[in-house]
């Protein structure tokens, strides 16, 4: 397969999302689920399929639902595969080209219709840049109109920021725009970070932002370049194709035609002039800020309130007409006046500040946390524009989350059990104090130098993960209590009880966490208890033997005494040459020996055995009574 693809000028990829063609082997046993997964993947509808089937009616019937571009059998595979791959690739490219052309045409028709119907110039121009960025999957599309000076430009719309408009830029930093203005032709830089048109400073800036390619298209109005459509490709998008440049040139000309109409051109020029001139009164500010959801206040150079928009008045529980003329501190009553006045003073010096939290108290008694931003506003009467939004709930939530996080961290660290978490590659991401004590590593060492495999004996970590994923030991993703061993830094095997689980995010495994209880003290205690039980058992045996020995000695002494007495009487009545004397003497001596044995039995105080016949054990009377002698 790889050789045939290489001969066809194709490359085999591992990820279906990167593929254009797919060769599906329907002769492979159990191929159905794999084919379904391929066709239902994100890239599945766009794949061109070639099916390998068995040369019989059933094999060809199997492809009815797939509708592949081409069909192969094993009989012709060796000779036909390269040729068929080439033809399929050509058809796929033709189909993709047709689809892109249709998409481009549809977008161009939409833009043309919008140019003809829309009266909102700012929304229209932003919509153009936004749809171009989405269509081409690029980082940013920008419309730049030329300013009054040769080195001055004004950004009137940007795809990634609907609020960005009338922003002045220095064209000395944009050599691609200057080149378009000079030549009146498109400029395309496919390798922007190394393109000779850019200087060292611009190349470094492009590389830092991850920009791969730049395209700049002229907007000619009445024979003069009055603006530039600027596009930047980053991320997955690395270049602009010739077809895309042609399409963008058409869009740029369509935009220029729309701007050529007197009403639209006048609107753009008016917006540009408005950006160049300072406001002569507060009415434009009031009209603009009246519909802003954030609070906005215009302050004079002494921090007196000149204007307060409706959102700000509602937020501060102060009517706008009553706030006018009052000092900012008077209507906000900040708990820390120094923070607020430092913010306003910085703005009056020309320094814009943003995101400063100020706690205020309203006349209605509400205590709010406001995130404030201040910027200089050069006007006859106004010195500063102050915007603010209520972040009381957000800051309270952040504090609660921070407290919860701190609590959980303290709880985990205070646990005597070891708690260890690792990502799916085995890298340790959590190693609490209990784990440090149990394994002998610091948390920093464990996270920087170890993997979870090194904390288990060889092969155990893989077995534990298999048990966690198994539904048999607590359910999928959970492991019930089991006995296991960890490896201490010194090499000592540490017996533990452990439970573990896999944490899922969006249905996918994210990381695993285990809780380990040190059993070394318990194992030592169990060993001591076992020794005590053994000694107790031996003691009980000894007690039984001693009691039995005493009873046997007492019961045997009486009959033995009688036997010995009668045997002695018989010996006295008989002479040594009498035939009965010897048997009686043997009876007497054996009775004496039995008496000695009974005496030893009576002295037994412990349980001592010796081997007898085979594996049989009998009581050793000498050792059982030796301590008495």
Pick out its properties.
629 residues, alpha+beta, 6-stranded antiparallel sheet, 5-stranded antiparallel sheet, 21 helices, 46% helix, EC 2.7.13.3, histidine kinase
What's the quick description here?
The chain is an alpha+beta fold and 629 residues long.
Strand order of the largest sheet: 6-5-4-9-8-7
Tell the overall outline: elongated
Taking the sheet with the most strands, its summary is: 6 strands, antiparallel
Structural class label: alpha+beta
Q: Detail the poorly predicted runs.
A: 271-282
Provide the gyration radius in Å: 47 Å
Q: Could you tell me the mean pLDDT?
A: 78
Question: What is the count of helical runs?
Answer: 21
Work out the helicity level.
40-55%
The beta-strand count equals 21
* Through-space gap between termini: 95 Å
The portion of residues forming beta strands comes to: 15-25%
In terms of quaternary structure, what is this?
A: single chain
Topology:
Layout: H1 2-7, E1 21-25, H2 32-39, E2 48-53, H3 57-61, E3 70-73, H4 77-117, H5 121-136, E4 140-146, E5 152-158, E6 167-170, H6 175-183, E7 187-189, H7 200-208, E8 211-221, E9 224-234, H8 242-260, H9 262-276, H10 283-289, E10 295-299, E11 305-308, H11 310-315, H12 320-323, H13 328-332, H14 337-348, E12 353-361, E13 367-376, E14 384-390, H15 392-414, E15 418-423, E16 428-431, H16 433-439, H17 443-449, H18 460-469, E17 478-487, E18 493-505, E19 508-518, H19 520-573, H20 581-602, E20 609-611, E21 617-619, H21 621-625
Parallel strand pairs: 1-2, 2-3
Antiparallel strand pairs: 4-5, 4-9, 5-6, 7-8, 8-9, 10-11, 10-14, 12-13, 13-14, 15-16, 15-19, 17-18, 18-19, 20-21
Helix pairs in contact: 4-5, 4-8, 19-20
């Amino acid at each position: 397969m790889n050789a045939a693809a290489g001969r066809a000028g194709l490359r085999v990829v591992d990820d279906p999302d990167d593929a254009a063609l797919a060769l599906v082997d329907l002769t492979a046993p159990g191929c159905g689920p794999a084919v379904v997964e391929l066709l239902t993947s994100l890239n599945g509808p766009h794949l061109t399929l070639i099916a390998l089937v068995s040369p019989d009616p059933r094999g060809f019937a199997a492809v009815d639902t797939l509708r592949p571009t081409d069909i192969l059998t094993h009989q012709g595979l060796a000779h036909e595969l390269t040729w068929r791959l080439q033809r399929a690739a050509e058809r796929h490219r033709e189909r993709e080209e047709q689809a892109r052309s249709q998409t481009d045409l549809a977008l161009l028709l939409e833009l043309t219709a919008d140019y003809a119907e829309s009266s909102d110039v700012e929304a229209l121009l932003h919509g153009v840049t936004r749809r171009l960025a989405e269509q081409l999957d690029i980082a940013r599309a920008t419309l730049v109109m030329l300013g009054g000076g040769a080195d001055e430009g004004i950004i009137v719309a940007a795809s990634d920021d609907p609020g960005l408009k009338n922003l002045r830029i220095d064209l000395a930093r944009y050599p691609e725009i200057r080149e378009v203005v000079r030549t009146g032709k498109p400029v395309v830089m496919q390798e922007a970070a190394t393109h000779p048109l850019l200087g060292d400073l611009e190349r470094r800036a492009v590389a830092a932002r991850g920009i791969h390619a730049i395209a700049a298209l002229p907007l000619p109005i009445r024979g003069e370049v009055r603006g530039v459509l600027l596009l930047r490709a980053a991320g997955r998008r690395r270049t602009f194709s010739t077809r895309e440049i042609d399409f963008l040139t058409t869009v740029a000309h369509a935009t220029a035609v729309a701007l050529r109409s007197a009403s639209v051109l006048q609107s753009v020029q008016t917006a540009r002039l408005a950006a160049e001139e300072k406001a002569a009164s507060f009415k434009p500010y009031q009209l603009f800020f009246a519909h802003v959801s954030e609070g906005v206040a215009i302050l004079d150079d002494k921090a007196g309130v000149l204007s307060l928009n409706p959102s700000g008045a509602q937020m501060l529980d102060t009517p706008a007409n009553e706030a006018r003329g009052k000092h900012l501190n008077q209507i906000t009553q900040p708990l820390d006046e120094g923070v607020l006045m430092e913010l306003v003073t910085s703005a009056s010096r020309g320094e814009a500040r943003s995101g400063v939290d100020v706690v205020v108290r309203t006349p209605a008694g509400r205590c709010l946390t406001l995130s404030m931003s201040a910027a200089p506003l050069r006007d006859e009467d106004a010195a500063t524009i102050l915007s603010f939004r209520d972040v009381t709930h957000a800051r309270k939530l952040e504090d609660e989350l921070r407290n919860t996080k701190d609590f959980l961290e303290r709880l985990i660290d205070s646990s005597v059990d070891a708690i260890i978490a690792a990502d799916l590659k085995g890298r340790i991401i959590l190693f609490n104090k209990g784990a440090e004590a149990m394994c002998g590593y610091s948390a920093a060492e464990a996270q920087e130098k170890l993997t979870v495999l090194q904390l288990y004996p060889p092969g155990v970590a893989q077995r534990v993960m298999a048990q966690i994923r198994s539904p048999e030991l607590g359910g999928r993703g959970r492991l019930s209590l089991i006995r296991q061993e960890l490896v201490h830094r010194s090499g000592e095997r540490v017996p533990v009880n452990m439970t573990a689980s896999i944490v899922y995010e969006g249905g996918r495994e994210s990381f695993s966490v285990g809780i380990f209880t040190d059993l070394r003290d318990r194992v030592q205690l169990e060993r001591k208890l076992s020794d005590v039980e053994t000694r107790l058992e031996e003691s009980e045996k000894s007690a039984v033997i001693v009691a039995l020995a005493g009873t046997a000695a007492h019961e045997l002494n009486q009959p033995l005494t009688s036997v010995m007495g009668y045997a002695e009487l018989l010996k006295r009545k008989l002479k040594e040459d009498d035939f009965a004397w010897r048997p009686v003497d043997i009876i007497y001596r054996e009775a004496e020996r039995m008496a000695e044995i009974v005496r030893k039995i009576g002295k037994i105080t412990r349980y001592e055995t010796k081997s007898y016949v085979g594996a049989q054990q009998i009581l050793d009377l000498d050792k059982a009574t030796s301590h008495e002698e």
